[in-house]
Amino acid sequence: MMKDFERLKKECMEEVADIGIEIGNIKEWKINTRARSMWGQCKKNTDGTYSIQIADRLLRDDRISEKACKETMIHELLHTCKEGMKHTGKWKVYAREMNEEYGYNIKRTTSGNEKGIENYKPKSLAVKYVFTCGGCGATIYRKRMSKFTKYYRNYRCTRCGAVDWRRKRQNMETWYYTVVSIDGDYANLKRTDIESEDLKLVARALLPEGIREGTQLKYELMQYSILD
Ligand SMILES: [Zn+2]
Ligand SMILES: [Zn+2]
């Protein structure tokens, strides 16, 4: 379900104005459908107006809350405010005020997969559905709901012809780790949610960018993410 962009825009502007922060002259809000590496962006035009872009994933992705979406919108809005273009100085003060007043978590750029953060490398969507063919053992992974994920029982396996797809239940458990050491392309992880001295060696390609020793990680739906 697409979020109501117009309403959210209005709410954000009102909330900012309500605590006495003056918003700059915004020429346009654009929904960016191609942005893969940022949530939002604010550009100052030569005529002194501002153009704000918001990644459409924020509006489309149901896993992203309205609040997280607004955090990005307000993050960008604050860039239009007086001396707010940089994340230091005034922007930081405005953001803190918004956070204190409304309970937001507006931050400058950080690494990780937290929602509402611009300029980070988004993690790919987690695999949600796994199906195996009862005939030949072929496995299909799907990240989104589709006709197949709904009606897989009726589908024929293109490899062996069997109509015998079975859904494999995903492990819905969440595990927590800390990065104990990094060794080239691998990292040693240790569980922090249970008592265990066992280390798990994981290829860094599977881990979020920006990890270092001591980084806290969450493992959920076959994906690792950084905990703040
Ligand atoms: Zn920013
Ligand atoms: Zn098959």
Question: How would you explain this protein's 3D organization?
Answer:
This protein has helices at 5-18, 56-60, 66-79, 90-102, 147-151, and strands at residues 26-32, 40-44, 50-55, 129-133, 139-142, 165-168, 175-183, 186-191, 199-203, 216-220, 223-226. With 228 residues, it is an alpha+beta fold. A five-stranded antiparallel sheet has the order 9-8-7-10-11, with no helix packed on it. The chain has a three-stranded mixed sheet with strand order 1-3-2. A three-stranded antiparallel sheet has the order 5-4-6, with no helix packed on it. The longest helix is centred in the N-terminal third of the chain and has 14 residues, at 5-18. Bound molecules: zinc ion (2 copies). One zinc ion binds at residues 133, 135-136, 138, 157, 159-160, 162.
**How many individual β-strands?**
11
Strand order of the largest sheet: 9-8-7-10-11
- Number of individual domains: 3
Relative helix content? 10-25%
Measured by DSSP, the beta-strand proportion falls in 25-35%
One letter per element, helices H and strands E, the order comes to HEEEHHHEEHEEEEEE
Cofactors and ligands:
zinc ion
- The gross shape turns out to be globular
Low-pLDDT runs of 5+ residues are 116-123
At the first level of CATH, the class of the largest domain is Alpha Beta
